[in-house]
Design brief:
5-stranded parallel sheet, alpha/beta
């Protein structure tokens, strides 16, 4: 048995341009709105969906088109938001991601409407599921234009996996992708974790990524998914 190599953590950069955003039934409504910029609703847009569903990618596409700045909700201040609103567009990300100043966000929402600035909000949760304590803020967010990124179908997962492998300069046979899609959790986040794990294991073993190799390398992950599914039944 040959010894495992110590894999180097080499950086790789995902492609986040419009041409790199893969579309399907799960995200068709969202990408249609983004492609329609600057013809947007007068109210704020709330983009929500699970981890890895493409929210950050869409924010980057919109920033390239609008010149908007992106701020995390947990770091939002009136000062940091006002300059961006004055330029006409602002993205506020991760409303689900922990405590933030609700009074500040409420003020920013009002300011954006007053100054007719475009405002994009992102979250893993829809407005009604966010644990808010300020009733006026909850009401404003429920009135935002909702855009859901749903779970991807098999075709979209195949294309996403192929892109994620390509981002790491890995050319993978279609049979490997089909093998993974038939067994994986139906999410973009799972696709990212699978590609990262296979890349790391293949480098450590100095072996190509085949369906047989993927079956061995991903067995603990697939077994864990099966156990989680049984626990939920």
């Amino acid at each position: 048995m040959s010894p495992r190599q110590l894999p180097l953590s080499l950086p790789h950069r995902a492609s986040l341009g419009r041409a790199d955003f893969l579309t399907g039934t799960a995200n068709a409504a969202a990408i249609a709105l983004f492609d329609g910029w600057p013809e947007w609703p007068a109210r704020p847009v709330l983009l929500y969906g699970p981890a890895g569903s493409g929210k950050s990618h869409l924010v980057e596409i919109w920033r390239a088109e609008s010149g908007a700045e992106a701020l995390r909700a947990a770091e939002l201040t009136i000062e940091s938001a006002e300059d961006s609103i004055a330029r006409g567009a602002l993205a506020i990300e991760d409303l689900h991601g922990g405590p933030f100043d609700e009074a500040v966000l409420f003020h920013v929402l009002n300011l954006a409407v007053e100054r007719k600035a475009a405002l994009l909000l992102t979250s893993r949760l829809p407005a009604a599921a966010l644990p808010l304590t300020l009733p006026d803020l909850a009401s404003r967010l429920r009135a935002a234009q909702p855009l859901e990124l749903a779970a991807p179908d098999d075709d979209l997962l195949r294309r996403v996996l192929t892109k994620l492998f390509a981002d790491r300069q890995l050319m993978i046979d279609r049979s490997v992708v089909d093998f993974i899609v038939a067994r994986m959790e139906r999410s973009f986040d799972a696709a990212s974790r699978i590609v990262e794990q296979l890349d790391r294991e293949a480098l450590a073993e100095a072996r190509p990524i085949t369906a047989r190799f993927a079956a061995t390398a991903l067995q603990p992950l697939f077994d864990g998914q099966a156990e989680a599914g049984l626990a939920e039944d």
